[in-house]
Amino acid sequence: MFKKILVANRGEIACRVMRTAQRMGAACVAVYSDADARAMHVAMADEAYRIGPSPVAESYLRIDALIEAAKRSGSEAVHPGYGFLSENPLFVEACEAAGLVFIGPPASAIRAMGLKDAAKRLMEKASVPVVPGYHGEKQDAALLAKEADRIGYPVLIKARAGGGGKGMRRVDDPKAFKAALEGAQREANSSFGDAAVLVEKYVSKPRHIEVQVFADAHGNAVHLNERDCSLQRRHQKVIEEAPAPGMTGEMRAAMGKAAVDAALAVGYRGAGTVEFIVDASEGLRADRFYFMEMNTRLQVEHPVTEAITGLDLVEWQLRIAAGEPLPLKQSDVGIDGHAFEARIYAEDAEKGFLPATGTLTHLHLPVDLARVDTGVREGDTITPYYDPMIAKVIVHGASRAVALNKLTRALRETRAMGSVTNVAFLEALSRNASFALGDVDTGLIEREIATLAAVPEPSALDRAVAALSALGLLREPAGTDPWETLTGWRQWVEASQFALLDWRGMQMEIEVRTLGNGRYRVAAGRAEVDVAVKVGAAGVHTLDVSGEIIEAIVVEAGREVGVFVGGEAVTFGLPDRLHESDDSGAGEDRVVAPMPGLVKVVTAKAGAKVQKGDALVVLEAMKMEHTLSAPRDGVIAEVLVKAGEQVQDGVVVVRLAEPAKG
Ligand code: ADP
Ligand code: ADP
Ligand code: MG
Q1: Are 71 and 160 members of one domain?
Q2: Which of 4, 421, 519, 645 is deepest in the core (most CB within 10 A)?
Q3: Mutate to test the pocket of ligand 1, among 62, 241, 300 (most ligand atoms within 8 A of CB)
Q4: CATH classification at residue 154
C-alpha cells in the first residue's frame, strides 16, 4: 500500500479521500489555492502545498503545479477526487511520466469515455443499449436540426464534453431548436472549451439510474448495485438513493451486466459509474434502459452505495491502484437496507437555485443522526470560485421508509447562517408524497417546484422571537434581568420598544411590550403574540405561547438572527437603522447582477421596449448561465455592461425608464 498520497482536490471530497487514506496508514498531502489557505482539507492533511491563486485555472487545474507538489512531497500516488482533473487523460499521463500512480483508470479508458458521442458509438459496438439520437461528428446547424426532426421531438441537445448538467438544452418545438443549439454550444464552449454537441431523443418519464462498477488490473470487474439519481434540477442531482425504488432482480442483473460490459469494453480499472437513462413510463422494465455516459471517477453520491454494501469505495480505489485484485466476487456483493444522500448547497431555491456565497457564521450539521461529508466548518467562506456545496447528508435505514424519515429528521436538525442554503427545500422534498412512494422521475422537482421551493413568510412567533433577540432580551439567563427586579413598577408602565428586522429584502418593524417576569406582548404585523420566555443557555430557550411550551433555538451571528423552531428555520437580517432608506438594491427600475459573474450576452438595447420577463443580459457564474430579465414592461433607459465584462454582485446592469405618469 502507498505510504504517501497527494489529493489533487479540495472541499468535501478531499477530506473524504484523506479520511480513508489516513485510516489505512498513508500520509496525505493537500494542495490549496489562496482562497483555501485555511480550508478544512488543508487542516486535515499531513502536509500541504500552495498551488496558485484562487481561480481554478490558476490552481486546481494546473497539472504542472500538482505534479511539482507531488514530487516535492515525495508522494507515491495521486487521488484526483471528482471534478477538476479527475477525468483529464493528460493529467493521468503527466502523473505516470513523473513516476506517480494515478488512482483511477488508464488514460485510454478516460479518452474512450470522455466524449459522450464517441462513447455512445463505442457502446453500440459493445451491444450496450444507448439513447437513440445523433452522435456523429458533423456539427452543421442545419444538419443537426434535420437530425432532430428525424429523432422526433422532444429532443435533448448535449455538449459532447459535458458534465455537471452543463451545456444541455431540452427542445420541445422545432422552432426553438436554433436558439437552444446556440445556447448549448455557447455554454459548452465556455465550460469545456468544446462546442460540439450530440442530439438525443428526450426519454419520457425519465429516471436516472446508474451502476457503480469496479475493475482491477487483472481483468476482473464487478458492479456494486445501482443508485437512483432521478431527483434533479437543471440536470443536476439533488437527492440520491440506493437501491432504486421498484428495481427488480432481473433488471438489476441486466443493468449490472451492461455496466460491467461497458467497463470491460474500454479496459477500465478502478471506480467508475455507468449512467443510464430509464424510460419509466410503464414502470421499470429490463428492456427500457439506455447508456448515457460513463463517469470515470468516484462519484459525488458514492456514499449511498457504501451505506448499503458496507464497503469503503475509496479503500477499494487505493487497493486496486496498488495492484491488488478486487476484494469481492460479484456473488459476495449484497444489499443491506436503503440509503439516501442529500446535497446541501449554498443556493437560493426560490430564486431558481441561484448559487450563493457568504461566510458561514453558524453551521450545525446533523452528525448525530447521519453520516455527514463536508469540507467546511463554521466560519468558513463559500466563495464564487468553486462549487458551492456545503455538505452531503447520508442516512441509512432498514427500509426505504425508515431511511427517508431519518433524512427528514437530519435536515430539520441542520442549521446554517451567513449564506442562503437549500436545506428547507431539501427538507420539503424529503416529505414529498410522490418521492415517498418511490414514484420519481427527473421532472418531479420542476413539476412541484412551487410547493418545494416556496419560502413561507415567517410566522408571528418567529418574528416575535427574532425581535426579542434583536432587542437583547434573550441574552441574560432568567432572573438576572434588571427589569424583573422592578416587576411591580413595570406592571404599571408597559415599556414599548421597536425592533427592525429584514426578511429576504422585506423590512418589518416589530413592537415589543415588556409585561414583566419574562413576559412580552409582541405586535408582529397584524398578529399579536403573548409570549413568556425562559432564557436558556447556548441559545436554547423555552417559550410559553398561550400555554403551549415550545423550544426555540436562537442564534445571533454577524448582522443576522436565526430562529429555529420545530424544524423550521428563519433567518432575519438586522438592518442598520442609519441606512434604512438605502435604495441601492434592485428596484422595479433596475436589473442587478445577483452574483459576481461574467457578462456573456447583452440583448438589451437602450430605447427598446421590453415586456416583463424578457431576457436582457446573460450572466455566467459558477459555470452556469443565468438570464437576467426585465422586472416589468417598459423601455430600457440605459445598458450599463458589455459582453465580456466581469461584474460584481449588486451591480446595476440595465436601467428601465420611469413609467410615464397618468
Ligand atoms: P456526479 O454529481 O454524478 O458525480 P457531475 O457530472 O454532476 O457528476 O459532476 C460531479 C462534480 O464534478 C460536480 O459536483 C462538480 O463539482 C464537478 N464538475 C462537473 N463538471 C465540472 C466542470 N465542467 N468543471 C468543474 N467542475 C465540474
Ligand atoms: P452530465 O455529463 O452533465 O451528467 P448526462 O448525459 O449524464 O450529462 O445527463 C444529465 C441528466 O440529464 C441526466 O441525469 C438526466 O436527468 C438528463 N438526461 C440526459 N439525457 C437524457 C435523455 N435522453 N432524455 C431525458 N433526460 C435526459
Ligand atoms: Mg451525468
Answers
A1: no
A2: 421
A3: 300
A4: 3.30.1490.20
Q: What local confidence, expressed as pLDDT, does residue 469 receive?
A: 95
How many Å apart are CA 574 and CA 571, to the nearest integer?
10
Mutate to test the pocket of ligand 2, among 135, 155, 205, 208 (most ligand atoms within 8 A of CB): 208
Q: Looking at the domain assignment, is residue 246 inside a domain?
A: yes
CA distances from 657 to 241, 594, 609, 627 (A): 50, 21, 10, 20
The span from the CA of 61 to the CA of 191, in Å, is 13
Low-confidence ranges of the chain (pLDDT < 50): 478, 485-493, 579-586, 662
Instruction: Give residue 46's pLDDT.
Output: 98
Assess if residue 118 is contained within a domain. Answer: no
In the block, residue with C-alpha cell 436516472: 208
To 10 degrees, what angle do helices 89-97 and 63-73 make? 30
Q: Pick the catalytic residue from 297, 319, 400, 412.
A: 297
Please work out whether the CB of residue 235 comes within 6 Å of at least one atom of ligand 2: yes
Same domain, 314 and 213: yes
- 193/212 same-domain check: no
Q: For ligand 2, is residue 164 a contact (CB within 6 Å)?
A: yes
Tens of pLDDT along 279-317? 999 999 999 999 999 999 999 999 999 999 999 999 999
218 and 144 housed in the same domain:
no
pLDDT at residue 577, rounded to an integer: 65
The whole-number pLDDT of residue 661 equals 53
> β-strand 590-592 against 560-565: which pairing, if any?
unpaired
Determine the pLDDT at residue 639: 92
16 tagged catalytic:
no
Q: Where are the beta strands (DSSP E) in 160-235?
A: 168-171, 197-201, 206-215, 221-233
Q: State the pLDDT at residue 587.
A: 53
Q: Where among 436, 455, 474 does a domain terminate?
A: 455
Structure letter (DSSP) for residue 444:
H
Residue nearest to atom 7 of ligand 1 (CA): 164
369 domain-assigned: yes
User: For ligand 1, which residues put their CB under 6 angstroms from it?
Assistant: 82-83, 163-164, 191, 236-237, 295, 299-300, 387, 623
Tell me how many domains the chain contains: 6
pLDDT digits 0-9 by tens, 308-351: 999 999 999 999 999 999 999 999 999 999 999 999 999 999 98
Closest CA to 278 of 328, 209, 357: 209
The per-residue pLDDT for 477 is 57
157 in the same domain as 47: no
Q: Are residues 292 and 308 in the same domain?
A: yes
Measure 188 CA to ligand 2 centroid, in angstroms: 15
pLDDT of residue 495: 74
Residue 597 in domain: yes
Rounded CA-CA distance 548/533 in Å is 12
pTM for the structure as a whole: 0.85
Q: Which domain, by its residues, includes 295?
A: 204-336
The ligand that comes nearest to the alpha carbon of residue 291 is 2
CATH number at residue 504: 3.30.700.40
Claim to verify: residue 409 and residue 524 sit in the same structural domain:
no
